[in-house]
Write a structure and sequence with these properties.
The chain is an alpha/beta fold. It has helices at residues 7-19, 35-47, 75-84, 95-98, 110-113, 124-139, 151-163, 193-214, 220-234; strands at residues 2-4, 24-29, 50-55, 89-91, 143-147, 169-173, 239-246, 262-268, 273-279. The chain has two domains: 2-173, 3-Layer(aba) Sandwich (Rossmann fold); 186-277, Pantoate--beta-alanine Ligase, Chain: A,domain 2, CATH 3.30.1300.10. The two termini are 29 Å apart. It binds adenosine monophosphate. Residues 29-30, 36-37, 39-40, 146-147, 149-150, 173, 175-176, 183-186 line the site of adenosine monophosphate (AMP).
Length: 289
C-alpha cells in the first residue's frame, strides 16, 4: 500500500491509472477506521482494480463549537486496517495540503443541506460537498463508496454529482452495527460507559418505528411522538437534536407514510453527537443508484 500526503502525488497516479483505463474506486473517510469503514473498502476492493482510501478530518465540515479538536485519530491503526483491507493507496493530506488561503470556494446543495442535520449544523454539508468534490477531482475514480449511516450526506452527494455532471458512480453501503444495534461510529469512543449503554436506544427507537409502520401506522406525528417519548425515557444522558420522518431521496418531511419513507435521529451526549437512520417500509425503498 502506498501512502500519499500530497494532493499532487495522488493526482499524478490517478491520471496515470485513468489514461490506462484502470477501474478506480474511492472511499472517503475521516479515519479512526472501524468495521463500517472496512465494509466500504471491501465493497470497493471487490469492484475495483485500484482502491484509494482518503483519511482526512476535514475542518470545513465542523462548525466553530463542534468536536474538531477531539475528533479521534490513530494514524498507525488506520494504516494497518487499510493495508489489511487490501487498499492500494491511502491518501492522508493535512488541512494545509487541501486548502490554500485564497478567497474561499464552496460547492453547496443549499436546500438539502439545511434539512435534518443541517438545522443544527448549517455549514456542515457544504464542507462535505466541497471536500468530496476535491477528492473526486484528485482521485478521478469510476466510483466512490459511502455509508448509509450518513444517509443525508449520501443523498446530497447524489444530487451534487447529478447536478454538476461529475462522471462518477456513487455507491451506498448498509449500516454496520454493534451486536446490540448501535451504529458503528468513530465518535462512539467519546461516550462514557453509561452513555454507551443508553445510546443503543437510538437504534431501538428507530426499530420500534419501523415495526409500527410495518403494522400499518401511517400518521407521522403520532409515530414521532411515541419514539420521542421512548428516547426521553431511555436516554436520560442524551438530548435529542432531531427525530424526523422524511422522503428518502428529497429529504422533505412527510406528514403520513404512503410511499418511500425513512426515519433519522440525532442525539447529543456530552462529548459525542450520534446519528442513525432506518427505512420505514423496506419493500418500497431502494437506493436510486
Ligand atoms: P466518517 O469517517 O465517519 O466520515 O465515515 C466515512 C464513511 O464511512 C462515510 O461514507 C460513512 O457513511 C461511512 N460509515 C461510517 N460509519 C459507518 C457504519 N457504521 N456503517 C456503514 N458505513 C459507515
Amino acid at each position: 500500500m502506498q501512502i500519499y500526503h500530497s494532493p499532487l502525488d495522488l493526482q499524478v497516479t490517478a491520471w496515470k491509472w485513468r489514461s490506462q483505463g484502470v477501474n478506480v474506486g474511492l472511499v472517503p473517510t475521516m479515519g479512526y477506521l472501524h468495521q463500517g469503514h472496512v465494509s466500504l473498502m471491501k465493497h470497493a476492493r471487490d469492484r475495483a482494480n485500484k482502491v484509494i482510501v482518503s483519511l482526512f478530518v476535514n475542518p470545513t465540515q465542523f462548525g466553530p463549537n463542534e468536536d474538531l479538536s477531539r475528533y479521534p485519530r490513530d494514524f498507525e491503526h488506520d494504516v494497518a486496517v487499510a493495508e489489511q483491507a487490501g487498499v492500494d493507496v491511502l491518501f492522508a493530506p493535512t488541512p494545509l495540503d487541501m486548502y490554500d488561503d485564497g478567497s474561499p470556494v464552496w460547492v453547496d446543495v443549499p436546500d438539502m443541506a439545511l434539512r435534518l442535520c443541517g438545522k443544527t449544523r448549517p455549514t456542515h454539508f457544504r464542507g462535505v460537498t466541497t471536500v468530496v468534490t476535491k477528492l473526486l477531482m484528485l482521485a478521478m475514480p469510476q466510483f466512490a463508496v459511502f455509508g448509509e449511516k450518513d444517509w443525508q450526506q449520501l443523498q446530497i452527494l447524489r444530487r451534487m454529482v447529478s447536478a454538476l455532471n461529475i462522471p462518477v458512480e456513487l455507491i451506498g453501503c448498509p449500516i454496520v452495527r454493534e451486536a446490540d444495534g448501535l451504529a458503528l461510529s468513530s465518535r462512539n469512543v467519546n461516550l462514557a460507559a453509561e452513555e454507551r449503554r443508553q445510546a443503543v436506544n437510538i437504534y431501538a427507537g428507530l426499530t420500534m418505528a419501523a415495526t409500527r409502520v410495518a403494522d400499518g401506522v401511517t400518521d407521522v406525528s403520532q409515530l414521532v411522538a411515541d419514539v420521542q417519548a421512548y428516547y426521553e425515557r431511555s436516554m436520560s444522558l442524551g438530548r435529542i437534536d432531531y427525530l424526523e420522518v422524511f422522503h428518502p431521496f428529497t429529504l422533505q418531511p412527510l406528514a403520513s407514510i404512503t410511499g418511500p419513507a425513512r426515519i433519522a435521529a440525532a442525539v447529543f451526549f456530552e462529548k459525542a453527537r450520534l446519528i442513525d437512520n432506518m427505512a420505514l417500509n423496506n419493500d418500497l425503498l431502494s437506493d436510486p443508484a
